[in-house]
Amino acid sequence: MKQAVEVTILGQQFTVKSEASPAEVRRVADFASAKISEVMSVSRSADSLNCAILALMNVSGAFLRLQDQAAAEGDAEVRGRLQALLDRVEKAGLDGVGVPESGPVSEES
């Protein structure tokens, strides 16, 4: 059963409904906030939406690199776990879980 969890990202309050534990939802929110802040610190843009998109690209890039690495190494368990993660994120929107960090993507002007 989904439960509502209040989180703050970039000073903005959000209510996230998730089947994940409140601690996991807060962990994901903290991760997302940190990634966006990381991009904001190196970006010339003050637009939080642009920074959020760039942060999402960072996380997506890390995910895809892990997926490619698992495929190249023939690691079916890791590939299966990554696919399950992707399926969960696609199905539930904000119900996803954090993924490993990558270097920041900066906005080109």
Uncertain regions: pLDDT < 50 for 5+ in a row? 94-109
How confident overall, as mean pLDDT? 79
Largest beta sheet, briefly?
2 strands, antiparallel
Radius of gyration of CA atoms, rounded to a whole number: 15 Å
Proportion of beta-strand residues: 5-15%
The total of helices stands at 3
Helix content: 55-70%
- The topology string of helices and strands comes to EEHHH
| Amino- and carboxy-terminal Cα gap | 45 Å
Question: What structural class is derived from the secondary structure elements?
Answer: alpha+beta
Count of strand segments: 2
Strand order of the largest sheet: 1-2
Structural shape: flat
Structure, described:
- Helix content is 58%, strand content 13%.
- It has 109 residues and is of the alpha+beta class.
- Strands 1-2 form a two-stranded antiparallel ribbon.
